[in-house]
């Protein structure tokens, strides 16, 4: 049962992140997710300093606020003429450095482990349980399910508008689609996703799951709906493959899941190139005849 | 207070700051800032793998490992972007997380192995300048000096490469070789810096001084000088502050000093917000009158 | 009623003033060319009219009212290279986006919307490409899809940003025929245009722009060597060269 909970958590991370990653990739904002995954540390430390407790709720709230703050600061720097990638680099390294420093100054006596936040420890997930409506499940599973529902809700409500604002924001604005609202709404959902997932699997794996599956799916998808399907499949598959590889070699589960994301990408790209090659060979053969 | 060893460490982080300020400016102008971030994260698997293969933690061996995986990550990003329809940002994010994930896998293997005994490899994630030995420092001096000298040698060619690659090609410059040299130098800077600043924050040292310098000047030569000065000052001041109290990591402090300089530049430089604010006010006034 | 009234419009980016004190009035039912040299602020002018720029002063009225995107009276066709054509979707889906304003928030496009989108695609001669991935379309086909989207929106006034840039001759003909038939229906069309040779043939109204509005009016009155000299300045020399070379053909 313990093993099963770990796999379910990994699957949920893969599916939730795979889903949230689609528009992230299409909006070319992958690196903002990377930035948010680093700055959640700052939010957690600030939450601890203000409340002086390690209460999960305040930590999650602090992390979510830090995530939105990151998106906002990047947008602010970018709109004042600084290159997008440089703006991201400045904001996340600064907040991350501040987070690490604040830990050493104010929180060195409590268990706020930077490495834990970065790399997570999914193997501990099954021991921290919550009970709601007479159902007892690991805390991480509850939180991930909640965030998955929030993401599905956001997409059901705004799918059409997100698609238009992502493809052509100028036209979207000209027919009254609220593009700024959508941008920040989406960034909020990305923050929640990151925050929900990092506690169990670590910030690095969250980014791997947000970017990798969706980017791989984008290579082979003809429509956004297809991309959602493939992305969630890749995310889930990476979680399962990663788990068993990690078990086999007795090493970091989160690290192995990220590695599996990379393996799936390489396999997809090779398969695609091979098909292209065969198609071209066929065409030149037909032309020869 | 200013003991002999501290003086050497201060010199070391200053040189590192200068080197990163210079190479960072070139990578920033090539719009490759986040490639540096990926390359820095990608140093981790190299370090762990070098240790696993050789069982030694001599700095040159670890640095070599770091350099190889770091350069490999840059090559992977370029390859993905040119051979698939994946966009640069996604390719950078993918390569960064996968390499770092592989690094964590290897690091866990190291920590589980009998050899590992907390080999101190974890220090590479955040950096510990204060614990650097004389031998470590010698390597730092040597490679930082090489980076600075080579950058100055290639200044003219890289300038052309960044501003007008077509023209550079036209007059017969070996563009690909120049690009590769620049990549090697950026990787070298990263590898040099990870021991004191750590893989996660190394990219800050490449990005922040360059971005700040851009706010003060638009000329490449003066931008390099300003960026190098900001990098050097951040190195000295950050290391000094971290030496005043035990347990303060050097990396975050260097980055925060650089960030403070960026913030001041963002507000008060000629391209900064104060100036823009006054201009906007002026513009609105003119509009109302006209 | 006037299609467009612009009073004292100024726009500034970072340090430069891109558009200064522009004034123009265009009556309804015209097919208007907006011409001027590169960097004259033509795209900025369009974006300012559509209220997409924060740093703007002055007054803009469209069909006698301040611009309200939700009214859907404006059909905007951005430059083709302003979007990423690798986006995973097909041509019909892009045209269907033109109906989103009518569909409203939270609702899915209706059968009626899909029918209108198909008709719009047919009117630009692209009905056979409805299910084609947009990345596989040629430049001209992409431009037709963009126009079809604006048609599906069924606006009263159209703004097109360089619709003829990098398209084939057949597409250019299709687009201009459609624009002319829109004019017949009493709609107003504004086109940022580059090719000076076709101005007289395509457009009945012309706005000359370089940092500000230098002249506007019926094409035969405005499109004169003196006015062009004023708009293009020293660059006219090159232009005359170009015109001369072409008149030889």
UniProtKB/TrEMBL annotation, chain A:
Keyword Magnesium assigned: no
Transmembrane segments: 6-25, 32-50, 56-74, 86-110, 130-158, 170-195, 201-220, 227-246, 252-271
Keywords of this entry: Cell membrane, Membrane, Transmembrane, Transmembrane helix, Transport
Lineage: Bacteria, Bacillati, Bacillota, Bacilli, Bacillales
Protein name: Metal ABC transporter permease
GO terms under biological process: response to zinc ion; transmembrane transport
Protein origin, superkingdom: Bacteria
Membrane topology: Multi-pass membrane protein
From TrEMBL, chain B:
Family note: Belongs to the ABC-3 integral membrane protein family.
Localization in the cell: Cell membrane
Transmembrane segments: 6-29, 34-53, 59-81, 88-110, 137-155, 223-241, 253-275
Keywords tagged on the record: Cell membrane, Membrane, Transmembrane, Transmembrane helix, Transport
Gene Ontology CC: one annotated term: ATP-binding cassette (ABC) transporter complex
Example GO biological process: transmembrane transport
Domain of life of the organism encoding this protein: Bacteria
Function as written in the Swiss-Prot or TrEMBL entry: This protein is probably a component of a manganese permease, a binding protein-dependent, ATP-driven transport system.
Alphabetical list of SUPFAM superfamilies matching this protein: ABC transporter involved in vitamin B12 uptake, BtuC
InterPro entries per record: ABC_BtuC-like, ABC_TroCD
PANTHER family: ABC-TRANSPORTER METAL-BINDING PROTEIN, METAL TRANSPORT SYSTEM MEMBRANE PROTEIN CT_069-RELATED
Membrane topology note: Multi-pass membrane protein
Species the sequence originates in: Lysinibacillus mangiferihumi
Stored Gene3D superfamilies: ABC transporter involved in vitamin B12 uptake, BtuC (1.10.3470.10)
Major localization listed first in the record, in broad terms: membrane
Descriptive protein name: Manganese transport system membrane protein MntC
CDD domains, per the entry: TM_ABC_iron-siderophores_like
UniProtKB/TrEMBL annotation, chain C:
InterPro entries for this protein: AAA+_ATPase, ABC_transporter-like_ATP-bd, ABC_transporter-like_CS, Metal_Ion_Import_ABC, P-loop_NTPase
Domain ABC transporter: 4-236
GO molecular function: ATP binding; ATP hydrolysis activity
SMART domains given in the database record: AAA
Keywords per UniProt: ATP-binding, Nucleotide-binding, Transport
SUPFAM superfamilies: P-loop containing nucleoside triphosphate hydrolases
Domain of life: Bacteria
Family classification: Belongs to the ABC transporter superfamily.
PANTHER family associated with the record: IRON TRANSPORT SYSTEM ATP-BINDING PROTEIN HI_0361-RELATED, METAL TRANSPORT SYSTEM ATP-BINDING PROTEIN TM_0124-RELATED
UniProt protein name: Metal ABC transporter ATP-binding protein
């Amino acid at each position: 049962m313990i093993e099963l909970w770990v796999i379910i958590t990994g699957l949920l991370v893969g599916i939730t992140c795979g889903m949230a990653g689609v528009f992230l990739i299409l909006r070319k904002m992958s690196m903002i997710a990377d930035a948010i995954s680093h700055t959640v540390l700052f939010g957690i430390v600030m939450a601890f300093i203000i409340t002086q407790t390690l209460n999960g709720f305040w930590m999650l709230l602090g992390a979510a606020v830090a995530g939105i703050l990151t998106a906002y600061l990047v947008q602010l720097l970018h709109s004042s003429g600084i290159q997008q990638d440089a703006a991201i680099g400045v904001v996340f390294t600064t907040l991350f450095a501040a987070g690490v420093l604040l830990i050493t100054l104010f929180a060195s006596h409590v268990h706020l482990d930077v490495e834990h936040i970065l790399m997570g420890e999914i193997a501990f997930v099954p021991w921290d349980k919550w009970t709601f409506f007479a159902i007892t499940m690991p805390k991480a599973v509850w939180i991930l399910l909640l965030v998955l529902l929030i993401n599905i809700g956001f997409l059901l409500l705004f799918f059409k508008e997100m698609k238009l604002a992502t493809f052509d924001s100028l036209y979207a604005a000209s027919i009254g689609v609220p593009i700024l609202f959508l941008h920040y709404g989406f960034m909020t959902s990305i923050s929640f996703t990151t925050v929900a997932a990092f506690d169990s699997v670590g910030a690095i794996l969250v980014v791997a799951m947000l970017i990798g599956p969706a980017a791989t799916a984008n290579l082979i998808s003809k429509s956004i709906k297809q991309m959602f399907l493939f992305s969630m499949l890749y995310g889930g598959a990476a979680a399962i493959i990663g788990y068993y590889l990690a078990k086999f070699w007795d090493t970091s589960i989160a690290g192995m899941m990220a590695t599996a994301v990379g393996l799936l990408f390489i396999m997809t790209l090779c398969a695609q190139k091979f098909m292209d090659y065969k198609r071209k060979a066929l065409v030149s053969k037909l032309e020869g005849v | 207070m200013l003991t002999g060893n501290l003086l050497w460490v201060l010199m070391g982080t200053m040189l590192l700051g200068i080197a990163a300020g210079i190479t960072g400016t070139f990578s920033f102008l090539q719009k490759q800032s986040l490639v540096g971030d990926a390359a820095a994260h990608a140093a981790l698997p190299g370090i762990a793998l070098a240790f696993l293969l050789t069982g030694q933690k001599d700095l040159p061996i670890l640095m070599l490992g770091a350099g190889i995986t770091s350069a490999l990550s840059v090559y992977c990003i370029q390859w993905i972007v040119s051979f698939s329809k994946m966009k640069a940002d996604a390719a950078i994010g993918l390569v960064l997380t996968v390499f770092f994930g592989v690094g964590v896998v290897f690091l866990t293997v190291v920590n589980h192995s009998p050899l590992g005994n907390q080999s101190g490899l974890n220090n590479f994630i955040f950096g510990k300048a204060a614990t650097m030995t004389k031998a470590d420092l010698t390597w730092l001096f040597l490679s930082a000096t090489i980076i600075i000298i080579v950058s100055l040698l290639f200044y003219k060619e890289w300038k052309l490469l960044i501003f007008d690659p077509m023209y550079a090609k036209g007059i017969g410059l070996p563009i690909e070789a120049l690009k590769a040299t620049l990549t090697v130098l950026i990787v070298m800077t990263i590898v040099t810096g990870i021991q004191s600043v750590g893989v996660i924050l190394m990219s800050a040292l490449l990005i922040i001084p360059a971005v700040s310098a851009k706010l003060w000047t638009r000329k490449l030569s003066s931008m390099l000088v300003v960026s190098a000065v900001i990098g050097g000052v951040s190195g000295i001041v950050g290391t000094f502050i971290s030496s005043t109290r035990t347990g303060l990591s050097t990396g975050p402090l260097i980055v925060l000093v650089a960030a403070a300089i960026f913030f001041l530049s963002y507000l008060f430089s000629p391209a900064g917000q104060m100036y823009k604010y006054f201009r906007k006010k002026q513009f609105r006034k003119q509009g109302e009158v006209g | 009623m006037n299609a467009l009234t612009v009073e004292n419009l100024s726009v500034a980016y970072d340090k430069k003033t891109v558009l200064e004190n522009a004034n123009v009035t265009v009556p309804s039912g015209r097919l208007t060319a907006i011409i001027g040299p590169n960097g004259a602020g033509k795209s900025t002018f369009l974006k300012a009219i559509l209220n997409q720029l924060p740093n703007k002063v002055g007054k803009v009225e469209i069909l006698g009212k301040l611009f309200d995107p939700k009214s859907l009276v404006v059909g905007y066709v951005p430059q083709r290279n302003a979007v990423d054509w690798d986006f995973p979707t097909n041509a019909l889906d892009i045209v269907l986006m033109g109906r989103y304003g009518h569909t409203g928030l939270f609702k899915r496009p209706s059968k009626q919307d899909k029918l209108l989108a198909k008709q719009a695609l047919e009117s630009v001669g692209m009905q056979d490409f409805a299910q084609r991935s947009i990345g596989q379309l040629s430049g001209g086909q992409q431009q037709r899809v963009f126009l079809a989207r604006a048609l599906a929106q069924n606006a009263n006034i159209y703004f097109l940003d360089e619709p003829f840039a990098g398209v084939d001759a057949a597409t250019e003909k299709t687009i201009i025929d459609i624009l002319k038939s829109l004019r017949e229906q009493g709609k107003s069309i504004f086109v940022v245009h580059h090719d000076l040779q076709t101005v007289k043939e395509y457009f009945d109204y012309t706005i000359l722009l370089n940092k500000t509005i230098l002249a506007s009016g019926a094409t035969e009155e405005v499109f004169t060597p003196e006015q062009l000299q004023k708009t293009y300045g020293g660059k006219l020399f090159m232009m005359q060269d170009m015109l001369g070379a072409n008149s030889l053909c």
